[in-house]
Automatic annotation (TrEMBL):
Name of protein: Bifunctional enoyl-CoA hydratase/phosphate acetyltransferase
GO MF term list: transferase activity
UniProt xrefs under PANTHER family: (3R)-HYDROXYACYL-ACP DEHYDRATASE SUBUNIT HADB, 3-HYDROXYACYL-THIOESTER DEHYDRATASE HTDX-RELATED
InterPro entries in the record: HotDog_dom_sf (IPR029069), MaoC-like_dom (IPR002539)
Organism field: Caballeronia ptereochthonis
SUPFAM superfamilies in the cross-refs: Thioesterase/thiol ester dehydrase-isomerase
Lineage, top ranks: Bacteria, Pseudomonadati, Pseudomonadota, Betaproteobacteria, Burkholderiales
Signal peptide feature range: none
Amino acid sequence: MSTIRFESVNIGDTLPPLALPSINRTALALFAGASGDHNAIHIDTDYARRAGAPDVFAHGMLSMAYLGRLLTSWVDQRQLRAFGVRFVGITQLGHVVTCTGKVVDKYEAEGERRVRLEVQTVNQYGEPRVIGDAVVAL
């Protein structure tokens, strides 16, 4: 991670994308253990099918964690001032997730120079799964 300077960032700049391996059962089990979210819809195929899903699917918070990784690959986590998302689609088993971010505003607040970013995850078909924004102090 390099030091990003406010002066060198422009509205419209994009963060280096974060491409991840396809979602698999191991990733879901590991995330369930790490997060404490053992909701059966994410780990039990029979339960997911009874609920009307074709199979288990990724935790929304796993995708949010991936977006957090995108941000902290760009700046130190101590520079994050805000981060929020909205879940707009289900990330299915086998989906290949790519996280992206774009600078949409530059401003000063509370004595800091900040940028606002739009962030999202998309699957291999380009379909947004999670969208959100973040504020970073530079």
